[in-house]
Amino acid sequence: MRRAGTVEELRSILAPERAAGRSIGFVPTMGAFHDGHRSLIRACRDADDVVVVSIFVNPLQFGPDEDFTAYPRDLERDVGLAEQESVDIVFLPELEEMYDADHSTTVSVGRLGQVLEGEERPGHFEGVCTVVAKLFNIVQPNRAYFGQKDAQQVAVVKRMVRDLSFSAEVVVCPTVRADDGVALSSRNVYLSAIERASAGVLYRALQAGESAIGSSGDVELAEKTMWQLMAEDSVVRPGYARAIDPDTFDSPVSGRPVLLAVSAKLGRARLIDNLLVTPEGS
Ligand code: AMP
Predict the structure, then answer these.
(1) pLDDT in tens, 47-96
(2) Phi and psi of 89, rounded to 5°?
(3) Which of 38, 149, 154, 177 to mutate for ligand 1's pocket (most ligand atoms within 8 Å of CB)?
(4) How many Cα neighbours within 13 Å face the side chain of 242?
């Protein structure tokens, strides 16, 4: 496995691979690896000749009161895991390598990045789009792998790729969960034992929402059911419980899959989760 710290190094490693006609697969991450990251890397390893993983905690996607400084970082452990997963190249840029002091260009997908998570985290998806656009320009992957866990990120990145004609194919991988249904997340380390025990309610709420929508097709009932289940847990402070269209994040369209999406705060951790469901008869 090779390490690249600069854009120039990475480009010089990739140029001969591309010239030899090998497919480049890319997994962008912020590190603090768990089995969710590993599943993306494995999907990439299965499909592509060259596996590139980036580890970069992107300040642009954190709000001023968010956890940029506290975000879990363990570079050496991550590099070891990447090696175990037969990654070919890890890209580990420093902050200054990615952003000049006077950088000013950003990428925005408009309204799609301003609703739901975008409403709770203003500027978040602009930060995501800007770093993903930059990384796509640096790596020029044939395929790039993202987790369904971050459903709005998937929608936003797909929209950006379509609107700006990036050539990468976006591959979406299923959410990896712990035995009790909790979606794996680097931020789960913020949970106390009591909070961790309650975190399973997000997935149970999504499952109850799925049953509600499956039996009645009633979107409002699904939203109410999910909210109530989360609100019943004294440790959980629900943020939103929504049933929406997975591409536009507007109201669901009959005959199309519905995205059930929830967020909640447990102590200082803010968790999100989602489930893509196909209502009966669609
Ligand atoms: P992050 O390091 O949190 O930015 O995540 C890097 C990638 O891993 C993103 O595409 C995430 O959606 C994906 N990811 C995070 N958690 C999971 C999970 N539990 N299952 C599948 N993919 C995940």
Answers:
(1) 999 999 999 999 999 999 999 999 999 999 999 999 999 999 999 999 99
(2) -140, 130
(3) 149
(4) 19
Q: Are 67 and 134 in contact (CB under 8 A)?
A: no
Helix (H, G, I), strand (E, B) or coil at 178: coil
pTM of the full predicted structure?
0.97
Question: Is any ligand 1 atom within 6 A of the Cβ of residue 38?
Answer: no
Ligand 1 centroid to 281 CA: how many Å? 31
239 Cα: distance to centroid of ligand 1 (angstroms): 20
- 124 pocket-lining for ligand 1 (C-beta < 6 Å): no
Q: H-type helices in the chain, by residue range?
A: 7-19, 35-47, 75-84, 95-98, 117-120, 124-139, 151-163, 193-198, 201-216, 219-231
Residues near 39 by beta carbon (within 8 Å), at least 6 away in sequence: 147, 173, 174, 176
Q: Give the residue, by CA position, lying nearest to ligand 1 atom 12.
A: 147
34 an active-site residue? no
The whole-angstrom separation of Cα 39 and Cα 147 is 9
**Can you tell me the distance from the alpha carbon of 160 to that of 113, in angstroms, rounded to the nearest whole number?**
10
Q: How far is the C-alpha of 158 from the C-alpha of 10, rounded, in Å?
A: 24
Is any ligand 1 atom within 6 A of the Cβ of residue 203? no
Q: Is 127 in the pocket of ligand 1 (CB under 6 A)?
A: no
